[in-house]
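fyi for ur records
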Amino acid sequence: DLSPRFNRVLSKTLYGADLVICEHPYCFNAIRKLWRGPLIYNAYNVEAQMKAALLPSNDEGSAALKKVIEIEAACCKAADLILVVADKDCTEIIARYAVDAEKIILVPNGANLPQKPVLDRAARLKKASRLGLNGKTSILVGGDHWPNVKGALATLDIARQASDWTFLLIGSMCASEALLSAALPSNVFLMGQLTRPELLTAMAAADVGLNPIDEGGGTNLKVLDYAANGLVVVTTSFGNRGVSFKHGENCIVSEIENMASTLDALSHAEPAYLEQIARKGFAHVATQFTWDKIAERMPLPSTARSF
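which gave:
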């Protein structure tokens, strides 16, 4: 309502549509004023749950959370179909909003495979050498979102203990006030926002994709992206939810407090062992989490037949 032009553009965009997909619930009220046809809600998280963890516990935070809950409840109730990325989100939406389970389907997050994934350890070492990366390198990729920032701050402590590793922090989280004001160990580099080609270059030269995440919603896309690009995935058990990697087979599951010692162990691991985990991680994504594989497994409930 504070942006009349938005509503005018939305009205023109909706004209002649057969179906509307609501990405996040926040535009639902605007859509509902202009649209009464079939509606799909694409839920990346349970927003009420996410915002409860992120908003301050004061009057303003409580008022904002109340609005989030109201709009998410209305969107879930009105939607003909709800897509969720994890089983736990499905359970939470049903319990929180009394939604019919028949109209919720699980469509996990997926990944795009690179055209030339670097799975060979020797080739990866050559790329690292060209970039001036000596020794073992770990990367953490994340947007400016509190669970990512919290994970980046935890990485600073990990880096102090794993001093023989280089840590590249990549993404808009690098511009967060908490990270910019922190004391960085000499083996940590804030790379900031990279272009996609630059990011792929970094992932093709690093050894480990780090995921020190212990809160948040949905699933961690970075884990799939790491594995798709030939990195050894080191993730918390929380960060492994919804992606089903197996510890010791196609990833390493390690809680944050143990990650430094995990990296130390990987420093002394046989190169063939690291390559094996990376290759099996890549195969896991290629067979389970590419978009075509996800689409093949996607069930359509009876509520979707009218579409």
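The first strand starts at residue 20 and ends at 23. thats all i got for now
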